[in-house]
Amino acid sequence: MTKPLTFLDMLSAAERQNDSMLCVGLDPEPTRFPGRFKGDSNKIYDFCAAIVDATADLVIAFKPQIAYFAAHRAEGQLERLMEHMRRVAPQVPIILDAKRGDIGSTAEQYAIEAFERYGADAVTLSPFMGFDSVAPYLNPVKYAGKGAFLLCRTSNPGGDDLQNQRLASIEGQPLLYEHVARLAQGPWNLNGQLGLVVGATYPAEIERVRTVAPTLPLLIPGVGAQGGDAVATVRAGWRPDAPIIVNSSRAILYASPGDDFAAAARREAAQTRHMLQAARSVSPTQTV
Hints:
CATH architecture: Alpha-Beta Barrel
Oligomer: single chain
Number of domains: 1
């Protein structure tokens, strides 16, 4: 019997097959939908499926954000979208962006939601209630090979309120985000499938996280509409044996306000993918 692929297996295969570090974030806002779909929350599936079809051969992953579906009572459309992605792009892993962070039986229910209801290959989590909030997603029997990305150094300015504080009680007084990275690289990584979320708006911190967690995949939002520097991001985080997943959502989803939105999304995704791939060979004195 063939052993099922783990999340990291899928990620590596997609990176090679599509020659990509680009993740397309699926954050559907009906008020921003183009053309005939504009303002219609019943068209969330149709809009997102068209984006998936247009970009499936250009990406390392897709990342649907669950709140954008739940806010419009579109969980059923998300289920259909997950099935569509597995059917038309089985080589591309799906990261459910949920940022769950509870413990005990509640965390177990959230894991069922992510991995059993929606069939995600990985999920984003908030680790700030400790390992108890991560362990249910690493169940070696139920979820062997499933991935989880822990919020580490996020792209929002308010992240400094907690993530950039020093831990005086720990030897060396690391910053909180550095401590999260060490835990994920070490004792918390029970199934070998953990990764970290670090924002593209802080390339120096990306480099620091990469030093502390040299082998973990990094999910990096903030390129595109949020203004993150793609070249600095790749130089700070990408290593040949440690993938990065650079997410762009709005810049791709809403590349055109017209009925050509899918073709425009493909062009934007192709340009972003090329820029990211080219950045791997950029020296400190070069620009792309």
